[in-house]
């Protein structure tokens, strides 16, 4: 579903590559943590998947298509197939919960009747039933992240990318968010999550790909945040 083939990414200016000859193969339906210290290249890798950035060399494939070779007009379609969730939620502050989720469907041209049907069921799925009329600042951090997840998932994307989604949340709230991401993964959505959250990674025991200085230093089918190899 997501494949990095000998990917190197060098940003302009001096310094080592942000990604250095990285190869990763993620199957449809996998749940993968991308871990590594700050600056190890996690966000760079996620941006390449979304074609927000392009590799200096090597290839990135999403659903069998080489992302870097997609015609510009096909990039929005690629991004529609990938839901994104971030540490800082990125909700529209003046729209209600329902409107935030509906907006993701409006911009891709879904009909009002479809939106009216899908938004409430998605809010229920993420545990926000009855809160559709609230504004984001009337919600807790964990609830705001649930709205962001509903917005990312309402279109049933093939892939969900999460960049540090529990970064602003306490451990109990984070556990709830991870349970939700686990449920979304169980529907067949491939989940790729960059994180520093040791506790979350240790609890989930999913595949862990570790980056250090832009290189893959570990790729374990079921692992924790730290290396289990002694
Ligand atoms: N737009 C950019 N221009 C130049 N250098 C960049 C740019 N974006 C990232 N870098 C550099 O690339 C390297 C990898 O950064 P990246 O943001 O991918 O790391 P990260 O693992 O996501 O870090 P964090 O956990 O802090 O978000 C770092 O050395 C960073 O300074």
Automatic annotation (TrEMBL):
Among the record's GO biological process terms, what is one? Answer: cell division
UniProt entry keywords in alphabetical sequence: ATP-binding, Cell cycle, Cell division, Cell membrane, Membrane, Nucleotide-binding
What membrane topology is given?
Peripheral membrane protein
Please tell me where this protein is predominantly located: membrane
The record ties this protein, via InterPro entries, to: AAA+_ATPase, ABC_transporter-like_ATP-bd, ABC_transporter-like_CS, ABC_transpr_LolD-like, Cell_div_FtsE, P-loop_NTPase
Alphabetical list of Pfam families matching this protein: ABC_tran (PF00005)
Q: Does the keyword Nucleotide-binding apply?
A: yes
Q: List localization entries.
A: Cell membrane
Gene Ontology cellular component? plasma membrane
Specify the ABC transporter domain's residue ranges: 2-230
Q: Which SUPFAM superfamilies match?
A: P-loop containing nucleoside triphosphate hydrolases
The record's section on PROSITE patterns has: ABC_TRANSPORTER_1 (PS00211), ABC_TRANSPORTER_2 (PS50893)
The GO molecular function terms of this record are: ATP binding; ATP hydrolysis activity; transmembrane transporter activity
> Family per UniProt?
Belongs to the ABC transporter superfamily.
State its role: Part of the ABC transporter FtsEX involved in cellular division. Has ATPase activity.
Known partners and oligomeric status: Homodimer. Forms a membrane-associated complex with FtsX.
Q: What is the designated name of this protein?
A: Cell division ATP-binding protein FtsE
Q: Which organism is it from?
A: Nocardioides psychrotolerans
